[in-house]
Each structure stands twice: as C-alpha cells, then as structure tokens.
Amino acid sequence: QVQLVEFGGGLVQPGGSLRLSCAAPVGIRSIYAMGWFRQRPEKQRDQRELVAVITAGGSANVADAVKGRFTITRDNAKNTVYLQMNSLKPEDTAVYYCNAVISALENYWGRGTQVTVSS
Q: Residue 30 and residue 36: Cα distance in Å, rounded?
C-alpha cells in the first residue's frame, strides 16, 4: 500500500490563494501520473471530479472549471505534486484528494484535505 501525504488545505476568502502539496514515498521509482480530484459537499464519494493531473513527462490536464486559476506542477525527484490555487471561489469548496497512478493496477488515493472558500 502506498501512502500519499497531503498538505495545504484550509479556510480562505473568495479571491484568495492556497497551495496544496502531496508526497508519495521517494522509494517509488516511477509514478506515471499524479493529480488532484475533489468532492464537493453535495456530491457523493463516487462523484469526485478531476481538478488537474500531470504525467511524469510534464504533460498536464486541467479541468475547464479551474483553468487559468489553478496550476499543477510536479517534482519527480521528490515524488511530489503541487496545486497552486488562485482566485478561489466559493464553488471551489470541497475535499481535495491526491491521486497517484503507478501502473494500470496500482492507483492510490490520499485521505483528502478540506478547502473552504468563504467570507
């Protein structure tokens, strides 16, 4: 079992910024993709939505809802992925989950970190 450790959630006012980070064990030699999903308060667990994902080669896919506001980056040497969230909106309020895909059979999730955007 691979444990993903997430940092950076919290409470922020609309228009503010937060930075999330997620670290996988450095002993893993190759992680195909790392990214972030979120589950909004009104949604169920199987309704997590993609926020952004990035491959080891640096190819990123960012959801339309956050494009231009959120940036995903990755440090392969540290097996760490970052999500810089700017211009946050109340509708960004959710539990954000880190995801790591090592292979077709190895897909891991973090425990989630709460992001609340409210005045």
A: 18
DSSP string, 1-12: -PPPEEE--EEE
pLDDT digits (tens, 9 = 90+) for 74-86: 999 999 999 999 9
For the chain, percent of residues with pLDDT exceeding 70: 99
Q: What is the pLDDT of residues 39-84, one digit of tens each?
A: 998 877 678 999 999 999 999 999 999 999 999 999 999 999 999 9
3 state SS of 88: coil
CB contact at 8 A, 85 and 101:
no
* Joined tokens for residue 67: 């494009």
Interatomic CA distance for residues 77 and 45, integer angstroms: 31
54 alpha carbon, distance to own chain's centre: 10
Alpha-carbon radius of gyration of the chain:
14
Query: Could you give the C-alpha distances from 82 to 21, 47, 105, 118, in angstroms and in order?
Result: 4, 22, 24, 22
